[in-house]
Amino acid sequence: MLVIPAIDLQGGEAVRLYKGDYKQKTVYSSHPEELAKKFEDMGAKYLHVVDLDGAKDAKASNKDTIKKMREAISIPMELGGGIRDKETVDFYLNEVGIDRVILGTIALQNPEFVASCIQEYGPERIVVGVDIRDGYVSTSGWLETSQVYYLDFIDELEKIGVKTIVCTDISKDGTLTGPSFPVYKNIAQHSKIQFVVSGGVKDDEDVYHVSELGYYACIVGKAYYEGRIHLEEVIKNVG
């Protein structure tokens, strides 16, 4: 299983939000590229990056910081947040060298766009973020909630060729109360899609539990920044 450290960017800094609330943030580093290198040195085999400004404003707001991070490390990087047009997809995949982009809002609004990106780049480089609030898909940096039930959305994604999703229960994100295991159990029973567990991971045991369940990957964010997880050890133990 992949243990994927997360760096959320706002105004060029590494921050964490509480339940996706832009007013409740903690700044952890003014040099995200150094943080990225630290994660690589700990043995991480993948890095998860979110442009929070982009998610809210649909602009590549932190592109210079993201370029610096890409140049600082050699491990693969996935990036989400505000990637809603072909120009931005091309920019990050071709010019910056991001390994895979995570499409969110646009996947709900325009699934044909996602299908065309998969056709061009392949399902390994086009991932969809399924962000859930009370069972329904949330968009626009988690500021809006749709009327689309998450399992129905996953069905539609599979039909257009999506192979991997990053699935976050917003009510858990940044809370350190453990992942929404019932949500992931539902997905595993309902679908063959490969998913990344995201939101709520609080300690080593949570990561080991995700690994025992045989899931593809798990994102670690606040638990690391708050000193609640032995990240290097966990990465070594589960892959």
UniProtKB/TrEMBL annotation:
<protein>
    <recommendedName>
        <fullName>1-(5-phosphoribosyl)-5-[(5-phosphoribosylamino)methylideneamino] imidazole-4-carboxamide isomerase</fullName>
        <ecNumber>5.3.1.16</ecNumber>
    </recommendedName>
</protein>
<dbReference type="InterPro" id="IPR013785">
    <property type="entry name" value="Aldolase_TIM"/>
</dbReference>
<keyword id="KW-0963">Cytoplasm</keyword>
<dbReference type="InterPro" id="IPR006063">
    <property type="entry name" value="HisA_bact_arch"/>
</dbReference>
<dbReference type="GO" id="GO:0000105">
    <property type="term" value="P:L-histidine biosynthetic process"/>
</dbReference>
<dbReference type="GO" id="GO:0000162">
    <property type="term" value="P:L-tryptophan biosynthetic process"/>
</dbReference>
<dbReference type="InterPro" id="IPR023016">
    <property type="entry name" value="HisA/PriA"/>
</dbReference>
<keyword id="KW-0028">Amino-acid biosynthesis</keyword>
<feature type="active site" description="Proton donor">
    <location>
        <position position="131"/>
    </location>
</feature>
<dbReference type="InterPro" id="IPR044524">
    <property type="entry name" value="Isoase_HisA-like"/>
</dbReference>
<dbReference type="GO" id="GO:0005737">
    <property type="term" value="C:cytoplasm"/>
</dbReference>
<dbReference type="GO" id="GO:0003949">
    <property type="term" value="F:1-(5-phosphoribosyl)-5-[(5-phosphoribosylamino)methylideneamino]imidazole-4-carboxamide isomerase activity"/>
</dbReference>
<comment type="pathway">
    <text>Amino-acid biosynthesis; L-histidine biosynthesis; L-histidine from 5-phospho-alpha-D-ribose 1-diphosphate: step 4/9.</text>
</comment>
<feature type="active site" description="Proton acceptor">
    <location>
        <position position="8"/>
    </location>
</feature>
<comment type="similarity">
    <text>Belongs to the HisA/HisF family.</text>
</comment>
<dbReference type="InterPro" id="IPR006062">
    <property type="entry name" value="His_biosynth"/>
</dbReference>
<keyword id="KW-0413">Isomerase</keyword>
<keyword id="KW-0368">Histidine biosynthesis</keyword>
<dbReference type="Pfam" id="PF00977">
    <property type="entry name" value="His_biosynth"/>
</dbReference>
<dbReference type="InterPro" id="IPR011060">
    <property type="entry name" value="RibuloseP-bd_barrel"/>
</dbReference>
